DNA sequence: CGTTCGTTTGAGCCCCCTCAACTGATGTGG
DNA sequence: CCACATCAGTTGAGGGGGCTCAAACGAACG
């Protein structure tokens, strides 16, 4: 995570880059020559299998780094969720960055740490939780992400997005959400808007008992 | 990853700690006051659900950091797989470490990056792969980890361990391994020793087509 | 009004889980 | 040396949760 103040100073060491909504600007398997810092917009990070199975591994937003965790080739793909602005750095340019921002390594470390904690929680979710538990966890995650802690959630993605994020199919996502509604745990006010009616129940469900 | 040379120098800034095999020395949810560096032995990192469902999220060995990625409380548990030696640091002691090892942040970053790549691959595995694909991926992972690239693999864990690592049950692990043997992709020479008979087929299976 | 695309709903099936019994290796005491 | 207990692994039978395939629905848009 980079301060907004620093972002303008960053510009002189990088190429600024605008990406259209929906464009996949990092392709898994391609040579990882560059890395990026998101300056505005949201990014979907995912992995694909040859037959089209998709797993979303996370999201990135303004201030986040992208592509540093790669080896010789990118280990994931990244797609702009909306209009996107990026700073692109050559891999070797990282040293310049380090000179100019002495604490950059510290910040990188903090971001990586946070992501690693997230990743562990998601491995538990993907490996061991039922569909109901996954959806409950997902809804609470959205809830906690919200600045106002409002119990009305505006889903940031389609059913396909949720399914690929939770390791389910769109049908199961739809059915499970409706089941949770029947049980009065949530109310689906619009397709992309859900009200949490019973937070305690959702929390016990999310943690699995 | 810390150089063996440096490990002795580390000692004066930390408390040395010996842990018995099988002991859980980090408990999820407890206050994360300390962090650790493994100096010898192997560690299993996992998360638990109230009803006992377990997901192993990774392993750590000599030179690896442990517990840095936590917030106020540990987000995971850690168990010694065999006799284990650790250096324990107070959370605040990290600053001393940084002074003494100026490039420690860089090393930490590299380790975190590698783990993050691993984590993404495992999310794809846990979210989208079938049992056959998971086992094939697992066997190839063991194969690549081996220094000699020998096609004979000595499994480093029991069926329970494999199951908790791959998000399956022990029965499915057993059945699937035997199915792979019937199809001549592997040979189960002993319970904990497997020979890879058809690497190309295992690789296409692991990547899912 | 018709098309398109995302979502919902239904029916059926399959993969994996659950529960249970069996096998085999290891160890222990008589 | 053998009877017995224990525990990891295997094998079998059955059930269920989530997937697949298909059709209906509904909102956005020309």
TrEMBL record, chains A, B:
* Stored Gene3D superfamilies: Jelly Rolls, Winged helix-like DNA-binding domain superfamily/Winged helix DNA-binding domain
Q: Keyword Mitochondrion: yes or no?
A: no
Q: List UniProt keywords, sorted A-Z.
A: DNA-binding, Transcription, Transcription regulation
**Alphabetized SMART domains for the sequence:** cNMP, HTH_CRP
The superkingdom of the source organism is Bacteria
Q: Where is the signal peptide?
A: none
Domain HTH crp-type, by residue range, is 129-200
Q: Where is the Cyclic nucleotide-binding domain?
A: 1-67
* Record protein name field: cAMP-binding transcriptional regulator
Please give the organism.
Asaia krungthepensis NRIC 0535
